[in-house]
Each structure stands twice: as structure tokens, then as C-alpha cells.
Design brief:
Elements (H helix, E strand, L loop, with lengths): L4 E19 L2 E15 L4 E8 L1 H4 L3 H16 L7 H9 L5 H19 L3 H4 L6 E3 L2 E3 L4 H15 L3 E5 L4 H15 L4 E5 L9 H10 L2 E5 L8 H9 L4 E3 L6 H9 L4 E4 L1 H4 L2 H12 L3 E4 L6 H13 L27 E2 L2 E3 L12 H6 L4
Parallel strand pairs: 5-6, 6-7, 7-8, 8-9, 9-10, 10-11
Antiparallel strand pairs: 1-2, 2-3, 4-13, 12-13
Helix pairs in contact: 3-4, 6-7, 10-12
Length: about 375
Amino acid sequence: MPLKLLRHTFYPLHIPYVRPIRWAGHIESGVDVLLLVIETDQGIKGVGETPVRLNWHAATLRSLMVVLEEVFLPQLQGLDLADATAVQVFLGGFKEHALAKSLIDTACWDLRVRSAGLALWQQLGATNSKVPVSWTLTRAKPQDMAREAERASERYGITAFNVKTGQSFEIDRIVFQSIRRAVGDDTALYADSNAAHRAGDVPDMSKLLSDHGVILFEDPCALAPNATFCDIQKNSQLPILVDSGCRSLAEAKLFLDVGAEALSVKIMKTGITESRKICDLAQTQDSRIAVGISAATALGAMNALALSASLPAELRCAPCEESFFAILEDVLIEPLMIKNGCVELPAVPGYESLIDWNKVSRLRAA
């Protein structure tokens, strides 16, 4: 059954955090979020959601809406949105605006699952609605990071943490010592330096991490698919997870061609369709995949969680990192919960009926 675009609606939101968050390069007290609702000529609605961060995306709510309304949405008219290949070919014709393309892609997937009567995780081929997650520990004082790890472990049963590093070798050492004391030796730890180091630092930093039982080292320094990357990976005592340098299927191919052991996919970078293609390609080349953090609301997180749930166990190198929603005000009627380190995804076709539209109205950005 063809699905043709009839109209669209934007819901620009600002959602406060329960506490300020320190990312690499900036501090946030809340996040802007854009909901896109597209409606077909048959009355079926699809919902897409993305966080919009000026520091990450070089975009604002207003600029993203202008791009969507003037560049993309008029050209969607007449396209069969049920045809994932046709939509992907259309979006692939634009080299820029990854955030806009991801938002359209996720909204179209939501249309398709509504039409099929399946939840997204089911449509993607997952057989289990319970998805293991890791908890992101952003940069802070070592004792504060350890306390947060302990609270997340006790409250949510979290057994895996992605630890933001790069404060200095000595501070990072204290961070991991403190976290290990707080959560024990059986907890899985992953490190993400957000390219804070130089290439020459990687051997010593990877040894420090390995000594504390860290499993994976994400973006230790600026990475490009070249001979230098091969040397960095060879000299690291831990597998290297490529994130910021891998923003498309084309870039994923380049890294895989030089032997990348692990790639991070993020819905806000490559949507659902292209992320799946990256996962398929990685599997053919014996690389592994981590579904990384977009720091989205529970609504946006469900896309990443569904993608992670659909991956074969041998392909995943880490639990899905999308658990940030736990410190945001929820826009869902029934909050998405983390229990025993897992999120159980609802078996509901489409997101529209899960959203508390009164909350959406209250959180609308000025």
C-alpha cells in the first residue's frame, strides 16, 4: 500500500535536565528537541524525533525546520514513503544535512510499522523486546562519576558503563579506580575520549585503561581511515571503536577497508536505514558494532534500542549506549524504564499513541 505525504507538523521542544551535563567542549542544562509528524493521504501518522545541539550539529531548532521545510519535505511529495529504498535513494541525493535526513528516515520507518501493525523492533527483526544498555558517565570529578555509577547500578541494575575520559592521565586513572571501587570488578567498562588525546598517547592510555579492565577504547584521538589509523590500532592494547570519523556508509567503508575492528552507529548521524547498511557491511568484514548515544529522549532512544536489539549478538561489541533519557523529563504516557540493566521496548505499532501530547505542549520551545 503506497504511503504519500499529505502534511507535516513540527513540535519544537526544550527539555530540561535533572542536573547540568558536561559534554566535551560545553555544558548543558537542557536540550532542544524537534518532533516531526508526517501524515499520509490515508491518515497514517509517523513520528520522528531528534535532539538539536548547536555544538554537535551546527544547527538550531529554527534552522533545522527551515531546511526540512524548504529543502526536503516539498520533494517528498509524490514519493511512496512505504518504499524504504526509494526514500533512501532520495535522501542519499543530499550530501549535507545528516540531522534532517535522519529525522525524515525515522519518521518514515514509524509510518511503515504503523502500516504493518508491528513495533519497530519487530519490524527490524529483533526477537527479544528486552535490550541491554550501558550508562554514560560524562566528565566530572572522579568521586562524582563514581557516585553516579553506584547510583545507576543500584537504581537501574546497570552493569555496563561508557566512561568519558580525557581529563588528564592522572585524573582518568583516579576516575577508573574510583568507579571500580564503587561498582566492582564484574561491571563492564568502556572508555570514550572524544578525541582528547594525541595519537602518540594511545599506547600509554590504552594500557592504563586495560589495567582497569576496560573493554573498548572509543575515539582516543582524531581518527581518519589511513595508515596512521592502522598504526594507532596496532599499538593500542584495546580494540579501537570509531565514532566521530564515521558519519556515513561511505566513511564506514573507508574505515573497514583499513581494518577497523569496531564502528559506532548513531541514529542522529545515519538514521535507521543507513545504520543498518553499516551494520550489514561490518558483519561481512568481521568488524563489530556499537549503537552509540544520541542523548535523545525516550522517544528517540527507542529507535536506537530497536536497532541494537536487531543485531546478532556476535556483531555487538557493547550494549546500546542510549540510556540518557533516564535523566530527562519524559514525553511518553508510560515512561520507558530501565530494569536489571535492560529496557523493555513496547510492542506497539508506531509512536503516536505512546506520546503524551499535553507534555509536548508544555515543553514547547518559546
